[in-house]
Every structure is written in C-alpha cells, then in structure tokens.
Design a protein that fits this description.
The protein is of the alpha+beta class. The chain has 24 helices and 26 strands.
Length: 692
C-alpha cells in the first residue's frame, strides 16, 4: 500500500474500501457500483488482507444467494414459494399508486413480480421509489390465496441500499489532516481512478463532475469523444442521481403529469442527467425545452395554476463528432446539441461547459487499486453539502469583472461554491488555492458565453477577468482559445469573422499549433531568444515543433536531465533522437551526450536501455554517449547545442501526460502532437559557442 492509502485507512477506518474490489465481486451482476460498494463497505472496509479476502467471499455469497438475475427470476420465485418463509432479495424496486384501490404497489425489476402491496409509511420514507425506482434489500414471502385479484407476494421489509447516518463533523476534522494534493487524490481514488494517471487540471475536470451532487440547481454540460466516462459518474456513483436517455424525456416524466398531479424526476432526485444528449437531428418536444429553460433559470415549474420549486441539478452529456478546431472553424462548440436546444436562451442557463475533449479515453491502467471512500458515504456527504453556500469565499481577496452579466456571475459563483465544498469543506483554503478555483470557474462559464456570442450576435460583449485586492486585473482565457486563437474569435451567427478584442490582452499562444493541419515550427531564419509557457492539457506540441530549428546544423548536442532513469523517460529520449535524426542531413554525424543520474533501483536495466539506443541510432549517424552524475548537484534540465543555443526545460523531456503507450493503433502513441501536455515552460538562450 502507498503512504496515502495507509493514511486514508488510519483517518477514515471503516469508511473506505479498496476500489479494485468492485470488479472482483461484480461478476455478471448488473448493478450500479454504489450497490456493490455498500456491501463491500459492510465486510471489506479495512486494510487487513485476510479480512478483505473473507469479506470478498461473503459479498460474493450474498450476491450469489440474494441478487436476482433476470434469467433466473423464475427459479428464485419458485424458491420463495417452496420455502414458505421470508427470502432476502437484492433488486431494483419501483412503486406506483393504484388510485382505484387506494394502495401503493411495488414492482421488482429483475424478480418480475408486480402489484406487491407496500405500506404508505415506507413510501413516504423513501419517495424515490415512486420515480425511477431504488435498489433495495427486501424480504419477500409467498402466501397462496384463492382470490385471483390479490397477489400472493408479500413484502415483509425493505431497506434502500444507502448509508443511514454519518458524522459530518468527523469528516471536516479529518479533512484538516490531509494536504490539498492528498485530498484530491483521495477523491479521485473514490471515483475509481488512479490519480497518478492524471494531471492537476484533469483531476479538477473529474471533480467538476461531482458539483451537481453538492450544489443545488446546478446546470452543466459535457460534450466530448466517446469513452471518456461522461455518464458513469451519474449512473454508478450515487443513489441520489439518475441517468436517463435523452430520447426518453417527456414533460410528465421530468416535471409533472398535469392529468394526475404526479411529480416527475426533478421533484425527487438531486441530480438528473441526460445521457446521449447530443445529436442535431434528434426529435425534441419544444414544450419540454421551454419548461426546462424556466426551471433552469428560476428553479421552478408549473403544475396547473400552482408553481412548484425543485432542487435537482441538470446534467447534459453527449458525444462530439468533430475535433475542436473543426467546430471552431465551421460552427461552435455546441454544434452537436439537438436543434431545439441549440437556442441561446437555453444554453445561457448552463453554468459550466466541461470540455470533454480534454479528458482521455478510459484505459485499464487508469483504474485505481488504492483506497477511496465507500461511495454511499461520500454520496451522503455531498448531499449534505447541498445545504451550504461557499460562493462568497473569494470575495475577501478577489472581485469579479463588472463587465459580465448577472447570469455569468451567478454561474461562476455556483461552480466556485461547488468546488470549494468538494476540495475545502473545512474552509482553510489559501489565497492561491481560492484563486485557482475561481479562475477555473470563470473559464467554464466563459466557454459557454463565448459560444453564445458566436451563435447570437445580439449578446453584449463580456470581459472575463477578476481583480485582486490591489486592483490588478487577471484575464481568463479558455484552453482552446489559447490553442486555436485564429478560429476561436469568430462570430458564426451572422457569417462574419471578428478579430480579438483589442482591449483584452491577447492570449499567450504557443509557438505550435494544430490548426493548419501540420505542425508549425519556429522560422529557422528568425531564431531568437524567447520564453514559452504551455498549459496542462494543451495539444499540438511535439519535440519537432519545440527543438527542430534549433538543432539544425548542430554537430554536438548535450542533454542534461537527472530524470532519464525509467522506461517512459528513456522512451522520451529515444523520441528526441528521432527529432535530431530528422533535422540532420544524411551525410552528417551528430554527437549526442546525456548527463543524468543512475537509477538506484535498477541500474542494469537503465544501462541496457541506453545501450539499445546507442546501437540503434548509430546507423542513422548519431553517436550517443552518456555519463552518470555522482555529485547530486544537477537539478536544472537543459539541451545545449554547439551552434550556440541553450534550451532550458523546467520539466526536461517529461512534457507529456500519460497516454496509451501500448496501443499500436493509437495516434497519441505514434504522434506527439496528439498527446495532452503537462504544464511546462521552455526558455531559448543564446550562448557563446566557445563556452558551449
């Protein structure tokens, strides 16, 4: 176990579970993860391996004996009948009011029995039984009857699978014992992911998916490629959220059935998520869109002459069909939204646009085998936090732009409040941490507003910045704005193109881009001293675009980097060799010398890798040598050429985030410009050739 896992178990005993156990016990049971974690939390919430193994067997036995598989429903019904006594089942149970008989009747989804009487007290205690159904552990009996109008099935007891109580104060006290980075990693592990596979920004994007659970009436959209886990968090993570297909939504199902007065999903669930929301040609009821617009703005809807309020947050997730630069060039980032929703009045109700294209497609190595909160525990914590408002936590230090609308301000405040509750529920964030969250919240709303101004030119210009207590302005840009400035600042609504607002500082665009279809490099005739900064998740960057022009003509290149020790770091070195080879003439030879530090854990493997590189690049005219620094004084990373250039790299060659290195057909494996970057900086310095 890692040190963090030890700490998690010490501070949250009995409330955390090893996340890889879900897959171990699930088998072919078609149940949400929170159901399985509820059971694991009863028997495996420990770091004692012997207890975990016996707990796994117990959970498997419970599932084997009590979970109802649909294809075995007949056998289970027969077993209950023949036993003549209570039999415990795990099933999804929904309830309907039979108004003719004035009774509530339960239906068991997998067991296949209906019209089972259930007392009104149970329904009042668990109202979500009436909308969508709830996973429960229930005792069922069979009592034969000659009255064919009466069901023989009897529901003896019912217990929803969710935490019955928790100690919030202990949660807050425990938060103080973790650093911010440790706490974020604990939350990421609780979501089932390995935090080592994500950069800081990607972790923030993942945690933003949780805001609807802890912030009332929060409206968020996430559009991006398939396979990034967009819908998982809303179907598996919490018993307080429901995921519905975008094509199944009706006014009665979502809001109210005016014929019988029955409330819809928003009246009972904390989060209503629309899956497969994208699709321009999807048929949509305009009346539904109109009611949604009113609800998302005013938190209310009408039932006849009565106006009702609700607290459900609205989530819209869908897939994109095109790349970001394509959408920015030809339409807008909402292009996949159904036509009737592609309405500025509706889109303006969204508080945050989560850029799904920044999130990697989920791979096996991204899942965690570390410890995280039992899902129903953190779900109840998030639900409890809906009662709090943290939106004012930045106001002592920062002020939002007075050139944005009230709706922009409200959206930013809600995102800020949600993230602060998730990250800093103990209210002990530093000024720097508060600023980081505020900037992130502003960016998410700016992404919405910038696209609205492309769609509808009647929107007034908004300037997204915040000021510190000294009155200094900090302009906020979106990542895609910095990556594709040529396409970002366009107005599509009237067919015109507009330039960047001169009153706002232009984003510090990098020297590379993917917007032209090929990598742009620094003009070889205009090599100059300069400093470049790159943001986390930025794409379009490669060693070729960073170094090729500075390598041309060099006959000796010295690389100083203490972190060329393990496989992926040495692979980076080999990819740099490719750049050097591509920028030398075939008849010339280049000496490449590496200064690094020995890998104490496996020095033989390190030397073996270096020797392989040496042998392979020799045929291309590269003479590769290396030395291990034993002084322990090298920390700065750089590349020096005998043409008089020193390239200072704050991260060395380690500029790329984790990618599918073993995927033979993955573009990110073959082409660096399709990889997401870490945040890094490069400085190009002209030096005296004689002192190279």
């Amino acid at each position: 176990m890692s040190n963090l896992d030890d700490k998690i178990n010490e501070i949250f005993p009995g409330l955390v579970v090893r996340k890889d156990l879900v897959k171990t016990v699930k088998g072919n049971a078609i149940v949400p993860s929170y159901v399985l974690e509820y059971l694991l939390g009863q028997y495996c919430a420990t770091n004692d391996e012997e207890t975990i193994q016996s707990g796994i067997e117990m959970v498997k036995k419970i599932l084997r004996d009590h979970y109802v598989h649909r294809n075995e429903a007949g056998l289970v019904r027969s077993t209950i009948k023949e036993k003549g006594r209570k039999h415990k089942v795990i099933d999804k149970i929904s309830v309907e009011l039979n108004d003719k008989a004035d009774v509530y009747e339960a239906e068991f989804s997998n067991l296949g029995i209906k019209k089972v009487l259930i007392d009104s007290g149970t329904v009042k205690a668990h109202p979500k039984l009436l909308v969508g159904g709830v996973w429960c552990i229930a005792d069922v009996e069979y009592e034969p009857t000659e009255d064919k109008s009466v069901t023989p099935w009897i529901l003896s007891s019912l217990k929803p699978i969710q935490l019955s109580h928790f100690d919030y104060e202990s949660y807050i006290d425990a938060r103080e014992k973790f650093t911010t980075d440790e706490w974020i990693d604990l939350l990421i592990q609780s979501m089932g992911f390995n935090p080592e596979m994500f950069g800081k920004r990607n972790k923030m994007l993942q945690l933003t998916r949780l805001i609807p659970y802890c912030e009332r009436n929060y409206n968020i959209i996430e559009l991006g490629p398939k396979g990034t886990g967009k819908s998982h968090i809303y179907s598996e993570f919490s018993p307080h959220g429901i995921l519905i297909s975008g094509g199944e939504v009706t006014v009665p199902k979502l809001f109210v059935n005016n014929a019988n007065g029955k409330l819809g999903l928003v009246g009972y669930w904390n989060v209503v998520a629309f899956d497969e929301f994208a699709g321009r040609s999807k048929k949509v009821d305009k009346a539904l869109v109109d009611i949604m617009k009113n609800y998302m703005a005013n938190k209310s809807f009408s039932r006849g002459i009565e106006t009702l309020g609700a607290e459900a947050s609205m989530v819209f997730v869908g897939n994109t069909a095109h790349t970001v630069p394509y959408m920015l060039k030809h339409s807008d980032l909402f292009e996949e939204v159904p036509t009737k929703y592609h309405d500025s009045a509706f889109l303006d109700r969204l508080h945050f646009y989560l850029p799904g294209w920044e999130i990697d497609i989920i791979r096996g190595e991204m899942f965690s085998d570390g410890y995280g909160f039992v899902v129903d525990y953190i779900a109840e914590i998030l639900r409890f936090l809906r009662n709090d408002d943290y939106s004012d936590r930045y106001k002592e230090h920062f002020t939002l732009s007075n050139e944005i609308s009230t709706r922009d301000r409200d959206a930013i405040n809600k995102t800020f409040s949600g993230l602060m509750k998730i990250l800093y529920p103990h209210d002990l964030a530093t000024v720097e941490e508060i600023e980081e969250v505020l900037k992130f919240a502003v960016e998410g709303r700016k992404r919405v507003k910038d696209q609205l101004m492309r769609i509808d030119t009647t929107y007034a210009e908004a300037k997204f910045y915040y000021e510190d207590s000294d009155g200094k302005k900090y302009w906020v840009t979106t990542l895609e704005e910095d990556e594709y400035p040529h396409y970002y600042h366009r107005t599509i609504g009237n067919g015109n193109e507009e330039g960047i607002d001169e009153s706002m500082p232009a984003p510090s665009a990098p020297s590379t881009s993917m917007t032209t279809g090929k990598e742009e490099t620094i003009d070889a005739h205009e090599l100059k001293e300069q400093h470049l900064s790159f943001q986390e998740n930025q794409k379009g960057i490669s060693y070729d675009s960073l170094f090729s022009d500075y390598f041309k003509g060099a006959t000796k290149i010295t690389i100083t980097d203490p972190y060329i020790r393990i496989f992926f770091q040495i692979r980076n070195l080999m990819e740099l060799m490719e750049t050097i080879i591509n920028n030398k003439t075939i008849e010339d030879e280049v000496v490449v010398h590496l200064v690094t530090i020995v890998n104490d854990r496996d020095p033989e493997q390190q030397i073996e890798y270096f020797t392989e590189i040496q042998n392979n690049v020799q045929v291309a005219g590269i003479s590769f040598t290396w030395e291990f620094d034993s002084t322990g004084t090298i920390h700065a990373r750089s590349i020096v050429t005998d043409t008089g250039w020193k390239i200072s790299l704050d991260r060395g060659l380690d500029i790329f985030q984790s990618y599918a290195m073993n995927d033979a057909f993955g573009l990110s494996n073959k082409m660096q410009k399709f990889r997401s970057c870490k945040a890094f900086e490069v400085t190009y310095i002209r030096i005296d050739k004689k002192n190279k």
